TrEMBL record:
Residue intervals of the BHLH domain: 1-22
GO cellular component, one term: transcription regulator complex
Name this protein carries in UniProt: Brain and muscle ARNT-like 1
Lineage: Eukaryota, Metazoa, Chordata, Craniata, Vertebrata
Listed NCBIfam families: sensory_box
UniProt domain PAS: residue ranges: 40-105, 244-293
Key words, A-Z: DNA-binding, Nucleus, Transcription, Transcription regulation
Organism: Sparus aurata
Amino acid sequence: CLSRKLDKLTVLRMAVQHMKTLRGASNPYTEANYKPSFLSDDELKHLILRAADGFLFVVGCDRGKILFVSESVYKILNYSQNDLIGQSLFDYLHPKDIAKVKEQLSSSDTAPRERLIDAKTGLPVKTDIAPGPSRLCSGARRSFFCRMKCNRPSVKVEDKDFPSTCSKKKADRKSFCTIHSTGYLKSWPPTKMGLDEDNEPDNEGCNLSCLVAIGRLHPHIVPQPSLADIRVKPTEYVSRHAIDGKFVFVDQRATAILAYLPQELLGTSFYEYFHQDDIGHLAECHRQVLQMREKINTNCYKFKIKDGSFIHA
């Protein structure tokens, strides 16, 4: 065990040094060298969860069964280990996010091996590490956003911020919170996972593919009015719309600006998010685009974000 309690800076330095050592190693990862020798399994898990401020979970890729979740999940979702272990992850996801998570659980060789999203920018992360035996052995990495059920209201919402027509969306905000999950796919023999091979006829002795990840609560970023005069690169995202104004595509950067996940906006009309004072002007711009089929520049307008407040666009 550790002779003294390590501060966070020391832990991070050790972790960086250890990752540099692993990256320069030619041997593939094994159970013996995946962690520093001076840390026990429990100490390593505790340090990782404390540094990440999240919860560790393991999910089977074939059926989405939750095989393990750390006790720290209670601080974020208000569910205990016993509530979640053995249950289907899909039962705790927002219906619109299930397809996205199933895609992340895919271990097919035809699927992209790297699906990483940066938590701050919402952009795909480019990796420049060349494939090799070490990297292939460690499994494909995953990073994605999804909404998971909370066992309590995550945010108190004032009625004055939302009209009665938005009651369904208001309830949705109370029931789900956005989780940023980062991890990797790994295969284990069914017996090593404590599973009975006889009860899993579909496996036929094959290894069990799992997602091992850390989930963290993802706070959205709202531009501060006091920073309006500072010259910085503008935050932006790209969206495409049907002729009636409904979102048909939204890139991941929208999450950092609006707090909505792309799948929350798809199928909804942009008129639902415009301030009533701007609808007349924007409707006229919409009409001109449909008639002239040319680029139209709008005046500055207010767009409602997920917490009910408005930002200027």
